[in-house]
Recover the amino acids of this structure.
């Protein structure tokens, strides 16, 4: 089993990255393989006019940047962790640019009659913000749910951490780190314990 984590914050070892690492630690301790994709390290262009109508015959993007590598990794994995900070009330630009590039999945379906993501998988969403605005998390969540639905990923859990701004602030919240670890363990197949996960549905 392989679980891919996508970090959509530009800040390495920031709050999103730290929580994602904890989720992946929970995954690894269940014996599953993990891979982290740090979007800011990649060259992923915003969706272009070409991509409104053209798709490769395999159903991938016609634009030759790092996006097709990301598409393949997501297609091959068994579960997904999407992690993004809240920026201006929504997911980060890095996250949205990647998600928009999944337009080729729609095109493949409609023009090639090819279903790209046939394997049903689970995914979870992790997010952080400086303030305490639940509506921002819900806004981000609706986009992630739409993305997951497009790639046949069942939205199976979430972890939202408000009130963290400076780098590493989330390390001062051991209860949140523990929830992140448990979210990863459950995504990798552990039975939910009666412990600290609270209302995270999976
Ligand atoms: C461009 C930008 C926009 C932001 N917008 C918001 C916002 O709308 N609401 C909020 O609560 N925090 C906002 N923040 C604060 C971040 O969500 C917060 O610093 C978070 O901990 C960053 O996570 P990271 O360390 O993973 O990058 C913003 C930060 C940046 C850099």
């Amino acid at each position: 089993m392989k679980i891919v984590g996508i970090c959509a914050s530009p800040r390495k070892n920031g709050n999103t990255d730290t929580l994602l690492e904890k989720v992946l630690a929970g995954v690894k301790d269940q014996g599953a393989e993990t891979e982290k994709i740090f979007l800011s390290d990649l060259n992923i262009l915003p969706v272009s006019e070409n991509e409104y109508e053209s798709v490769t015959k395999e159903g991938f993007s016609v634009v030759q940047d790092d996006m097709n590598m990301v598409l393949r990794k997501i297609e091959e994995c068994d579960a997904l962790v999407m992690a993004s900070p809240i920026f201006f009330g929504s997911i980060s630009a890095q996250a949205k640019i990647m998600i928009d590039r999944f337009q080729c999945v729609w095109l493949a379906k409609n023009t090639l009659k090819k279903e790209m993501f046939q394997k049903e998988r689970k995914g979870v969403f992790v997010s952080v913000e400086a303030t305490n605005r639940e509506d921002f998390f819900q806004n981000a969540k609706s986009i992630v749910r739409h993305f997951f639905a497009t790639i046949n990923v069942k939205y199976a859990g979430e972890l939202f951490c408000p009130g963290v701004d400076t780098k590493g602030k989330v390390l001062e919240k051991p209860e949140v780190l523990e929830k992140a670890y448990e979210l990863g363990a459950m995504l990798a197949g552990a039975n939910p314990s009666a412990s600290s996960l609270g209302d995270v549905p999976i």
User: Anything to note?
Assistant: Residues 134-150 form the longest helix (17 residues). The CA atoms of residues 50 and 62 lie 8 Å apart.
